[in-house]
Queue: 2 jobs
Job 1
Amino acid sequence: MRSFTYTAPTSVADAVAAIASAGPQARFFAGGTTLFDLMKLGVERPSALVDVSRLGELEVIDTSGDDHLVFGASARMADVAADPVVLRDYPVLAESLWRAASQQLRNMATVAGNLLQRTRCPYFRDELYPCNKRRPGSGCAARDGIDRGSAVLGTGDACSAAFAGDWPVALLALDAVVDVVGPRGERTVTLADLHVEPGDTPDREHSLAPDELIVRIRVPVTPAGRGSTYLKIRDRESYAFALASAAVAVTLTGGGVVEECRIALGGVATRPWRAYAAERAVTGRPLSAETARAAGEAALAGARPGNLNAFKIELGERTVAEALRIAVERAGR
Amino acid sequence: MTAFEVNGRKVDLEVDPRESLLAVLQDRLHLYGTKKGCDHGQCGACTVHLDGRRVVSCLTLASQVEGREVRTIEGVAGEDGTLHPLQRAFIDNDAMQCGYCTPGQIMSGLACIAEGHTGDDDEIREYMSGNLCRCGAYVGIVAAIRQVAGPAEA
C-alpha cells in the first residue's frame, strides 16, 4: 500500500482547510469500508487521508422537522436504519439501509460516504485487468469477460459497471439533496445531479470537486414515505449486492388511484436511476397486475444488455412490478 | 502515538497509518483470537467491538481508534476463565466445526443480542449474515444465540 499521512481534524472548517493544503491526491476518509478496502487492493492510492468520521457536528440525525429529514454526513448507516421515524414513515429508506452490507459495516459506514461507494465490478477491483474506470484509456475487461453483474441502463462504450449502492437509490426516489462545503463556500446538489453516467470518462462518478465535503443529506418530508418499499433481489437472501432493486413510493386517492409515484432502480444501471416513464405509466390509475407490468417494462425500455446480463432486463421489470404492489398495499393501510 | 483501550487495558503505540486495527491486535499486541479471513470486510472473522458496537477490524484504521475502547474475544470470558454464557452456548449447540470463524461469530452474536435483533430466528440470520462459516455451522450458531437471547417473540 502506498504510504499516506493521516489527520483527524475536529471541525468541518479544519477538514476543508486540511484537504486543500494536502494536495490533489488527498481524500476525505469516513467509515473506510470502501476506501481502505480499495487501498489494500492498490485501486485507490491517496497521498493523504483527512478523517471526517468523528466530527460530532456531522453525526446529527433530525427526523422531527416539518420540511426535511436531516441526516448528518457522518451518521452511521445502522443508526439511520434504526431511527423510529425512518422505520415508521419511510420504509424505503430503512429497507435500503438494513438490506445493505452487514451490521458491522453499517456500524462503520457513514450515510454520506455510502453515496460515493464505488462499483463492485470485479475487473475494477483487480489490477491484473484493464479498466477504463480505474485507469482511463486502458480498456474494459468486462466487455469480453464475465459481465453478469454489469449494468444495462446508462451504459457507455467505455464502461458498463453497475452502481452498487442501495441507500442512494432510495434517496433519489425521494428527491433528496446533499449540502456540500468546500473552499468556495457551501452549495446544495440534488441526488439527481450528484451521480453521472460513465460516458467517455468512467473514472468520474459524481459531480463533486475533490475538495468538497458532503455535510448533510436532506430528504423532503412526504406522505409517499408511508407507501414505500426498497425491494432488493440478489443471489442470496442477505449480505449481497443487488442484481436488481427498486425504490418505490406512492400516494393513493381515496378511490385507490395512484396519485403520486416515484420509482428508482438499483443494480441494473451505472448510477442510481430514476424511472420517470415508469412513474407516468401508473400515475392517475389504480394499480393492477397489467399496469405494474407496464411500469416495469417502461423502466427498462432503454436497456442495452452485454453478454451475460440480459436476464437483468426481465428481472428489473418484475422487481419494479412487485415493489409497486408492496408500496400500494402499504399506502392503502 | 495512538492511545486506546483493549479489553480494559490501556495501550499506547506508534502505529503506521497503513495498519489496520486487526494487524495491530495480532502483530503488536499478540492478541491472536481475532482472526484474519478475507481482510476485505467480507467474512466477519475479524469482528470486534469498538465503543460497544461491532465492527470489522480489518477495515478499521488503527489510527481511528485513538481514545476509544476495543473489546476482543479475549475480553469475553471472566477473569477466572469462566466462559461467557454465549461461549458456553456455542459449545452446547455444536455451533462450530473448525472454529476459525468462531471468535467473530461470538463478538457479532453478543452485539446481535445487545442490539435486540433476536425477535425471531429469521432476524438472527439477517443480523448475523456478515459472519460467514464455511463449515456450515449456521444452525448451531442461530440456536446458541437463541439460547442466550431467550425465546422468540410470538
Note: The domain at 2-75 of chain B is CATH 3.10.20.30 (Ubiquitin-like (UB roll)).
Job 2
Amino acid sequence: MIEKLDITLIVNGRERHARVEPRRLLADVLRHELGLKGTHIGCEHGVCGACTVLLDGRSARSCLHFAVAVDGAEITTVEGLGGGDELTPIQQAFHRNHALQCGYCTPGMLVTVQEFLAREPDPDDAAIRRALSNNICRCTGYANIVAAVREAARALREAGT
Amino acid sequence: MNEFVGRALLRREDAHLLRGEARFIDDVPEPDGTLHLGFVLSPHAHARILEVDTAAAAALPGIQAVLTGADIAAHVQPIVAEVEIEGYRRHGRDVVARDLVRFVGEAVAVVVAEDPYVAQDAIELVEVSYEPLAASIDMEATTAADAPRVHEAVPGNLVFEGRFATEGFDEAFAAAPHVLKERFKSGRVGGVPLEPRGCLAVPEPGGALTFYTSTQIPHMLRTAVAKYIGCPESRLRVVVPEVGGGFGTKAQIYPEEFVTAALARHFRRPVKWIQDRREELITDIHSRDHIYEVEVAFDGEGLVQALRSRVRTNAGAYSTLPFGCTLETTGGARMIVGPYRITNYAYVAQAVVTHTGPVGAYRGVAQPSCYMAIEGMMDRIARHLDIDPAEVRLRNMVPTAELPWTNVVGVRYDTGSYQESLRAAMEAIDYEGFRAGQPADRLVDGKYRGIGICSFTEVSGTGAPGWRARGLVRLPGFDTGLVRVEPSGEVTAFVSHAHAGQGHYTTFAQVVADALGVDFADVTIIEGDTAAVPYGTGTFASRSAVTGGGALIRAATKVRDKMRRIAAHILEAAVEDVVFEAGRAHVAGVEGHGVDMRRIAETAYAMNELTLPEGEDFGLEETDFYDPPLVTMANASHIARVAVDAEDGRVEIEAYAVVHDCGRLINPMIVDGQIHGGVAQGIGEALMEEFVYDDEGQIQNATLLDYLLPTAEDIPDITLGHIESPTIDAVGGFKGVGEGGVIGAVPAVLNAVGDALSGLGIEIATKPLRPSLLAGEIRKVRDGSAS
C-alpha cells in the first residue's frame, strides 16, 4: 500500500483536512475527499481548463497538481465564488447572456474570468478572447461568453469592486 | 395562443450550473462499496490475442476481479447493429475482444477495483500476448483484393453498397455542354464533448438495476442494455444526470455501458466507470472520414443538368449501436442535392470497414462533408463560366414559390427560404461590396482574401419513415409527451428526450405553457428518467423541438380539451362555448362567468364538492406519441470572409454571417446559441480538427494538445439573422436547428479559402486546412511561377 499523508488546505475560506496518497490529484481531492464537485475534470492533462481553481489567488489547473504538493495552500473553487443565494455579477452576466449550454466548462470559465477581471477591469474584446483561450468550451462558440465578460466587467466597475 | 413561444426567455437550468451544484455522471453520489472499472485497451490495430495473464493484476490489493473477453462473454451477448438495407453485411462485436482486436483502443480485459487509482495500477499489470497482424487502415486500399480482412462476414471489406440512378440519367448527363469533376476528401473528426463518458450501475431490491449514464438516448439504451445483458427491461431504470455535451457522441450505446450494468448484477454491488480523455479520443465514435467523387454536368447558364457521385465512408472496425455504420453513407449520398433543383442524379454509396475506431453520428452526420462537395462544385461552376458563385446558387435553387418540392431521392421540402436566406446573408456581410473591391489575384495587404458561401438544407426531426428509408428498422422515430395538471393547478410535463445543454427545461416549458394556456412559471419539465417518462427515441439529429415539441403540444391539447369539458360542466354551458386562456376557463363573451384552473383540477381529482361530467375519468393527464413525417427540412446560408497568410498559411476568419430558417422559433436566444456553437465546431473541423492515423493504425494525436479544438481566439463574431418559414408538415411549425451551424460552416470556410487562393489556381478539396498544408500549396505555386 502507498503511504498516505495528512494535508491541510484552506478551501473557500475554510480549513479542510485530508489524508491522501501522494499521487492523488488536487482535482480528485477537491471532488472526492472534500465533496466539491463543481470543479470538473475534462482532460487530466492541463489543456481544457474545466478544472481551473484559484491556488493562492492565481488560476491553476487542479488536474496538474498533486494535493500533497500544495499542502497549506488557499484554494477557491466555483463553490467559493458566490455570495450565498445571490449569483455574483460574473455569474449573473453568464446567465443573462446565455454564456453556458451544457455547463461543464462553466466553473473553470468563471474562475478564469474572476481572476482576469480583477487584474484587467476594463478589457477590450481581444484581451477577453485571449484570457478565455485558456478554457475550452465545446458548446457556445464563445460569442456569448465574450459578451458576458464584457457585461460583467462593466457591472464590476460600476459597483466599484 | 402564443405568449411564451418566440421569446428569448433566460434559462432555468443556469443557476445550479453556475454555482457548481449540477450533478454530472461523476458527481452522482457513489453508494458505499462501489466498484470501479478500468479497461485494458489494445495497442494494436489488428492482432490475435494469444493469452491474457491476469495473475499479477488480480493479486494487487484492492482488486476484486480481472476479467477477460471470455469472462465478459458469459454476461454480455455479442452486439449486432440492426441495419436492414440491401447491400449491408451484418457482423457482430464482442464488447470485450476475445480472439481478435480490430482497432487501437479496443478493450481486451476489464479490471474491477475498490478505487479508481487502483484500477489504473491493475491495468498496467495485465499482461496480454498478441500476434500482430497486417492491418487495413487506408479507406481506399481496404477494398483491394489483397487487403487484410477486418471481418470474416464482410468480404472485400465492403460492408455496404447502395446504388441509385434516375431514369434516363446517362442521356441527361451526356447532353450537357459542360462537365466538371472533383474528388473531395473529408478528414476524420469527433464530437469531443468536454465531459468524457461514464456510467454507474446500482443494484436495487428484487433484482432491479438503476443505471446512471451520460447518454442522449435513455430509452433506446435501456432496451439494448436489457437485451444484451439479459436483464428484464422492466427491472432496468436508466437515469440521465447532467450531460456535459453530447453532439451525437453520446447518442451511441457503447461496450462499457453493457459491461458496467452486467457486472453490477454479477457482483451485486454498485459498479462505476469514468472515461479518461485518451479513451474518449480513441474509443468514442468518430465521423466524417469520407471521399466524394462528384461529376457535375451543367449548361452555359450554370444550371445543373445532372449530378453523379461516388460516396465512400470509412466505417471503422465495427458497426455501432443504434445507427449501424451506414448512416453517413446513405446520408451523404441522399442529402447532397441540398436546396438545388437537381432532377437527374446517380450515386454509388459505399461503406468500408478498416482497422480504425468505429464511427457514428456526430453533429451534422454526413451533411458538412456532402455539402463540402456540392458547394465546392457550385464554386467551380462559377469559376468555369465566370459567373458569381452566389448567382450560380440562386439560379439553381428551388424558388420558394415552387414549394412544396419533392427532391430527387423522394424527400419533401414543405416550406423554406433558399434564395431569400442567401440574399439576406449576402446583405448582412456586404457581399457585393466585398466583391467590388476584390482584386483578381485576391492579394490585399500581403494576405489572400476571399469569401465563401454554403447554402444548404438541414434534415431535422426525422420520423420512422425517414429511418426506414435508411435501413434502420428498429429505430422508433416517435417521441412522447405526458402532460399532467396537478391538483394544485400547476403543470408537470414529461418528455422522452434527454438534454446535453440545449435548454429543454426552458424551451419545452414555453411550448407547454402556450399549448395549455397557462403561465410559463407554472410548468415543470421532466426528462431523462425511464421510470418517470414514457418511451421515446431521444435527443439527436436535430429532433427535440419537432418530435418532443409536437408530442407535448398534442398531449397538452388533449388535457386542455378535458379541462374545457369539465369547465363546461361546472359552468353549465356547452363545451364549444367555453374558452380557455391565461389559466382560466370562461363562457365566450362573458368573462365574469368562469372557473379557474385550480378549481377545475380539484374537480378532476375529486377534491371538492363538484362532480365530473358523465363518463369523464378522474385525473388530468394525457400522453401522446408523435411520429413526425419523413423529415422536417430546415435551411440556411452561411458566408465566411477569410484572410490567408501568404507566408505561413494561417487562415483568419474576418467576418461571418448566417441567415437561418428553422421555422417557428421557440426561444431565439437558445437558437442563436445552437448556431454559434455549431459554427465554432465547423470552423474547428474546417481548419484544425482531425484524427490522424499512421500506417499501422495508431492515432497520432490522442490528447487535446494535439487534437486541436477551437478556442475563443479562433472564432469570429457572427452576424446572425433568421427567416421563419414554419413547417406545414409537423405539429407546431418547428424545424430542427441543432446541426445547422456545423453543416454550414465547414463548406463556407473551405469555399472562402478556395476563393482567396483562386488567383493562384489552387483548388480546395480537402479538410482540415492546416497552415502547413496551405503554406505548402502557396509555396509550390509561387516557386513554380518564379522559375
Note: The first helix of chain B runs from residue 14 to 18.
